[in-house]
Amino acid sequence: MRKALRIGTLIFLALFGLALVGCGSTGERRSDVESTAAGFERLLRADDPDGLCTALAPETRSDLEESEKASCAKAIAAQEIPLGGATQRVDVYGRQARVVLDADTLFLSLFHDGWKVVAAGCTPHPGRPYQCAVKGG
To answer: Pick from 42, 58, 50: which is nearest to 114 by CA?
Structure first.
């Protein structure tokens, strides 16, 4: 009876510990997402198309190049991505995130080398999907 109680207690503690680790990683992911969004904004302010391309998710970059029939740097320079301003809200859902800024909304995904921007220059349209200046297919 005592052995079963000890095993049950150990299982409970292990599961509780996993729950705590999960909570900590959510905060870390949120911080990483905010940092990535701030970095993207800095690149926009600095007018750094090469840096912006590096910050894009691979499929987004590829779709941009294909749709504009130009290199990513030339294609992104031609887009009208507004300076977003201050962060209003950050939502993280597993490996996906949304950052709502004063004048823009960014969507991000987590890749093996960190968070990347999947869509930028996005404006909400009630009852319809966001319209984005830059997005992956």
So the answer is: 58
